[in-house]
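chain below, 369 aa
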Amino acid sequence: MTRAPRLKALIAAILFALPMSAVAEPRIRDIVDVEGVRENDLVGYGIVVGLNGTGDSVKNSPFTEDSLSYMLERLGVNVQGEDIKPKNVAAVLVTATFPSFARNGSTIDVTVASIGDAKSLEGGTLILTPLKGADNEVYAVAQGSIIVSGINVQAAGASESRGSPTTGGVPNGARVEREINYAFNDRNIVTLALRNPDFTTAARIEETINKSVGFQMASMRDSGTIDLDLLDVTDSPSRVLASIENLSVAVSTPARIVIDEKSGTIVLGEDVTISKVAIAQGNISIKIVESPIVSQPNPFSQGETTTVPRSQITIGNTGSGNIAMLDENVSLSQLITGLNALGVSPQEMADIIRAMKAAGAIHAELVVR
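prediction:
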């Protein structure tokens, strides 16, 4: 048994072995975001040194030389008029995510990506780089050794690469220097925003919170928003959120089918239903045969040898086709299971699902990527 069938069999065994009561419901913290509590993006420009001859070339990346000269001058080294052509330096962009309520002195991870023609950042060290926010203020500074997961091996007649050696990371490589002042505990109303708006799920969150606290604190504004009224609550907003964020709520998912044509993946929602329909599907084969003919000129003529293309295209039906009658009590997942047992390819399954959707037999949203 190959790896894929073993994995399918293992997943099926686990799902059938679990009782229905063992299916855990998601917590409120897993399906909502708190308005105002968010991350912020930081970006900075820096240079990486210590590369083993895999840095930027001065010809294609002149800004690398300018950055290196500026850095050396700041360190007291006079390089005016010098022709600097190092191969162990690369210009990079440094990005990081500034977490909510980050404090001075805390550290965050950074990502480093080359913007020149460097071949690899492996073994390099990021020099002190300020990281700025959207307001152009410096919130953190980054420095440290770069960890690269990609590899690029080159030989005289061949080359091989895995991943991206020009992108790496520095774990805990940035230190927070400026805080974002946000008085969260001074708020009288806290808003919860659903990541996937749904009226049923929002109503269930409202009922669950009010039942837990014992009074009408939560009110549903729309399908994606629940407001928490904290005027009559003695605890701080942080305490209130800590007490309700771990409450379990049954999430209502829409009937949806997602087809990824690139990978041939088909994902079905639980509530996908089909109407009574007949399906006819036949296998069509297309055969193209190339038989080029070489035309030679006559002896002692001024003609040239040419190749005349000759193509033969044959379209046939490998089978007579089957017609399947489906009743209303047959689910789409059962249909997919049957087609999979017959050896139907994912591409053919996707074509059948699209045709059934066009015929109005599938009652679900179809998403094709």
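The longest helix spans residues 3-17. The chain has three domains: 40-176, 183-252, 256-293+308-368.
thats it, cya
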